[in-house]
Amino acid sequence: MDLTVVAYVIYLIISIGLTVWVARTLTSNGRVFIADVLQGNEKLADAVNHLLVVGFYLVNIGFVTLYLRSGETITEARGLFEALSVKLGVVLLVLGVMHLGNVWVLNKMRRRGIMERRQTPPVAPQGWTAPAEA
To answer: What is the pTM of this model?
Structure first.
């Protein structure tokens, strides 16, 4: 019996489920970073967060579907588990790298926002002084 199609179905279900779970985690927790960077502009934070998550979905689901094909025919349960472990392991590594990349970008954005706020004077200038005559 050919179990290749069964392996494909199990791989897609688990991979897409993992992608959705990581994306939801990024959405809920990443929003806090983005709102901090954007100085409390909730509407813009939600828009940026949504765009980042859409990109995350596109890249990861695209990778999952491209990596679906298997060069070997799976005929027994052992081969099914071996093929799934390799495919799911690679997907988990890619999801982990994408997740760490997103966290790194969000942290860079947050740090830049903190530095910009520190450079802004607490009171706006109220006038200017003409240069002294020589």
So the answer is: 0.69
25 touches 98 (CB < 8 A): no
DSSP annotation string for 22-64: HHHHHHHHHHHHHHHHTTT-HHHHHHHHHHHHHHHHHHHHHHH
pLDDT of the chain along its 134 residues, tens only? 678 888 889 999 999 999 999 889 888 887 887 887 777 788 988 898 888 889 889 988 998 888 888 777 888 888 888 888 988 998 899 888 888 887 788 788 778 777 777 776 667 777 788 888 86
Q: What b/e sequence results for 31-54 when a residue is b if at least 16 CB atoms lie within 10 Å of its CB, and e otherwise?
A: bebbbbbbeeeeeebeebbeebbe
